[in-house]
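task queued by scheduler; priority normal; single chain, no ligands, no partner chains; default sampling; output format set to structure tokens
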Amino acid sequence: MSQFKEGRKITVAEMAPHVHTFLPNENKVNKISEWLINWIRKALAEGKIRPYDYLPLKGDLAFHIGVSLGTMQNVYRYVEDKGYIQSRQKVGSFIKAPQERNIEKLTSKREVASEAIKNYIIDNNYKSGDTLLSARKLSAHLAIPFATIRIAINSLISENIIKKSGNNFVVLKTDYNSNNKEQQTLVEKIAEYINQYIKSKLKTGDKLPSNNALADMFNVSVKTIHDAVKILSVAGIVKTRRGYYGTVVCDFKEDTNDLYYYEQVEEGIKHYIAENCKIGSKLPTIKNFAEAFNVSTKTIKNALDNISAEGYIQSQRGRYGGSFVLELPAQNSKGYEWLALSPEFEQLN
């Protein structure tokens, strides 16, 4: 287990970022990420910063540079993928010591998605000048989250493999060498490591260390641990419960559901939208959904937040506010099967 040390907080002023000007259609995430990595390398070499020093808050740096918080969140994720920083939940992102960076290359979700898009271009015989599917359709076709597809598209634009033309993406070249070998994400690799730890150290019913402890143990972010534990939960290796009980090792013969509960609800709401709504329709309230699905309002809110992040709905505040449909999601058998077990669903129709 790595020994965590507390460092000082780096101020925005001392970073003196000079990335305020962007060319038309320039990839802001890649440009800022490259600048930040170079700044970290140089500042470490010159002794201006030390390992375990904290970067400024994402919002503060985003405001200073003049970009959105979402852009800066993607920058921090990219730089963390490259092994230069590590994030700690509710604490911040700190500089990693060079010797603590992963020696083995662990592929990020963005890189996996980029490879998937390049393979799609090759497999479907796209030529230079052809219009690619929209990000939304690529996400559905490749079964990769929409947010990851957007980051991958930005990366491919920076590599001059595709370009943005109006609201479309156009293929620029297809003569690259796409890696057809199955790539493994950092999350999947950490899930393997945790599984090995469980087999060697724990038995059925034992409680897993906290996510923070596991993050220190495997030298990754808490978010990576959370996603890795989720993989193990889907595989039936562990079961996560809120509060005191935490995450415990399962009996491998025990039946487990293949979706987190709020994800079951998410698929159920998507099914409801596809079956009962049109573009612009207003959804039932969170309270109505909670009563119909017999779950908490917090579970419904988590599900709606995910659906909103995927671009299917938009929430508005105020007297005439609510959640409104922007796009109809594709039908999903898991959501349908789960709803078939929920008679309360009929109350919404």
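post-processing summary
- Confidence is low (pLDDT under 50) at residues 252-260, 333-344.
- Strands lie at 85-88, 92-95, 131-132, 162-165, 168-171, 238-240, 247-249, 313-316, 322-325.
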